[in-house]
Fold these 4 entries.
Entry 1:
Amino acid sequence: MGSSRDIAIGPVAVVSLLIGSLLQAEVDHVKNKEEYMRLAFTATFFAGITQAALGFLRLGFLIEFLSHAAIVGFMGGAAITIALQQLKYVLGIANFTRKTDIVSVMESVWRSVRHGWNWQTIVIGVSFLVFLLFAKYIGKKNRKLFWVPAIAPIISVILATFFVYITRADKQGVQIVKHIEQGINPSSVHKIYFTGPFVAKGFKIGVVCGIVGLTEAVAIGRTFAAMKDYQLDGNKEMVALGTMNIVGSMTSCYVTTGSFSRSAVNFMAGCKTPVSNVVMSVVVLLTLLVITPLFKYTPNAILGSIIISAVIGLVDYEAAILIWKVDKLDFIACMGAFFGVVFVSVEIGLLIAVAISFAKILLQVTRPRTALLGNLPGTTIYRNISQYPEANLTPGVVIVRVDSAIYFSNSNYVRERILRWLTDEEDRAKAVGLPKISFLIVEMSPVIDIDTSGIHALEGLYKNLQKRDMQLILSNPGSVVIEKLQASKLTEHIGSSHIFLAVSDAVRFCTTKSMQEP
């Protein structure tokens, strides 16, 4: 159903741990296992509904409100939260908080330091965590040994399981996986909540996980589509992911999405079509039918260590530093998402990420950039004098460029900003004894559109200039803009002789006109 040829579908670390932490905040998976599973299926169902609805309604652009900076911060915060949640397994803590914020988690850890920690569990967890991190370090240092970090988790599980089995460390308080059901997942249609208090909880968790999963899958799909030079239809991907999760919720599955690591393996192996997902499914099926009993003595500590080693890489501090250097507003969005997740909750962090990204868009729309233009010596080119200090201002003429469409949201600001430029230049001309300002040229090539409020603002600007005995000149308005100006009759007021194709033509007209005046 999707358009990507390379996305490998399945459980991924971020979404898996995200849904796990959100579910644990609502239901204790040890004391209320049945409710926990039912809520997981309900959340998966609503995640699928959310994804499919966005695709069918062609609302894929909504995920664009999650900027790259916000995603970096959100992922980093989620990684910290997920890693902290694994401390209960690595330290062997039986009674652990269901909250996900860092303050509550650390309070729970230190409260149980005297009587809740299990030293055998700590030895297993810390030892294999060091091994896994060392394996990742080797893989980064030597590209030829890329397979070392790939097989390290499997080796860790085998060794830890064997160690617990021969020493019977589970008798000493080391928590193990215990029995895992064999066979194909049974139907779970009857387990999805459609009524009762858990519906709202499942919906909330599902929407969060669905959006995060969607963002990750589309990002992965676009990455590989660019590498292979084909187009990705984001709306088709959403419908495909949504359908998959809706069906999955009815067959005892939780939220799945595109996996970057699996997709990368597919890419490196030369896979050309989504049939590779079918092959993977067959392998997983064989595992469920044959191998699951072997994991009975696997300690929870090793699973926690694997998860911690996996999510550490999601804290991309180098990207955060780069964001700070490039764009301070993006950095605020990044840090807002990060601290929102770490100190409050995943939902709040996601909300902060979207809110700050949206606020940035509003700021850019309502406060567009304007620039005062000057002539580059020896040319007919006019550029921003802040960017090119050597550019010369034209006596008696003020040239202003508007770097945005002019809409109701910014029309008053644009008009006031232009008048402010004009006033400043008038004061400067008087101070240094230059000729009186007689012409205002508005360079409109970046103005891709204008609405009635924008036209009204230009009309107000024109009338203001008439009172000052100045002339408004327009330079290079686009086809859409000029059609609307003509429809509004504003071009008749300004005069078609005062609309030019280039700034240089407008300046030549102004200087000629000034020379003709007594």
Entry 2:
Amino acid sequence: MTTYDHIQELRAELAASLDAGERQQIAAELEQAMVQHAAEKAVFDALFSAEPPR
């Protein structure tokens, strides 16, 4: 599963959750996944914005 798909799954779980403790746990996992996704995107963007080798 990609990080993006994991984020979408967590968002759906968060929307469906009624228990406050479970919502807090899902929200924390969602935040961690979003940080991971941002890091992956930064690496990807750096690969394509770098100057080509000469």
Entry 3:
Amino acid sequence: AVVPGDDLDEAHHRILLTNCFAQGAALMQGRGSDDPARSYPGDRPSATILIDELSPASFGALIAFHEHRTFANAVLLGINPFDQFGVELGKQIAGQIEAGGTVFDPSTEALMRASGIA
């Protein structure tokens, strides 16, 4: 969310919004090129949501919107959005962390030490 505040001047806020709107336009328009690395097909869906005030109600509405969109797209695609193999793997690893005794990658170990659960 881009929210103007005391530490964010108007010019910087305008630059952020300009780039946000430009990305949406680029996804829609695309651009052809002889160089495949510089060719962008366009017709890519995107959504830009503007909220007058960031409040608990507007934040909750934004979360509900994303949840609804995820479920609606899953229905249209005929998939179960709640059956995620990555989530299952995460649950298995969480069980290993809870049980203790397993050595994990350095990143996970550092997070566990920093949070006090290791």
Entry 4:
Amino acid sequence: MMRAKYFKELEELKTEVILYGSYIEGMCRTLQKAFVEGDYEEAKLMVDEESTIRSKERRIENDCLRIMSTQQPVAKDLRFISSVLKIANNLQRIGGHVIEIVELLDFVGPINNLFAVNQLIDMNSRVMVMLKKALDSFVENDLELAEEVIASDNEVDALFDKTMDEIADRIRTDTDSYKYLIDAMQITKYLERIGDNTERIARWVIFAIKGDPEQQEQH
């Protein structure tokens, strides 16, 4: 009876993470819509969701700590719970970066003011695919999919470097647009950080499955 309750708690914990991940995915889709359509109204509503993002993380954290203290899990279950703690934190960071980008877009004004918007759309599209794969790898315990996410982060990093170089070149030749260029640079940095946090989710999935210490060190 006690073991049945324990396994039920683990399944509920996994469900919490899946729902949290879906929530953050929705935020990324709303951001993409703002980039593509230039309409920030829906995206601006997300600014008020920061407390919700943090409360979801805290709930998962509290549930993890409760299970650890009352059930004293070992081996694979302990790795799973430890990974859930880290994944929830990475999801919270992703949501926070999305909000930071939306706040910058509000200052930028019309999307045409934003330099390199097509590159930003491309970056966000790539990190959205990464996030979906990372969450799917968590759901399915899929090592191969998690490893694909890690490889994809190299592509995002390359696009980040290329976009930052283009913005830096433009700053040197177009001082009148300095403010908008700096905003574009900051948004690029936030998207790169979203990619990094998504990669960390994949690494924690791998750690949960096979206990690879190298994956744990990448947190």
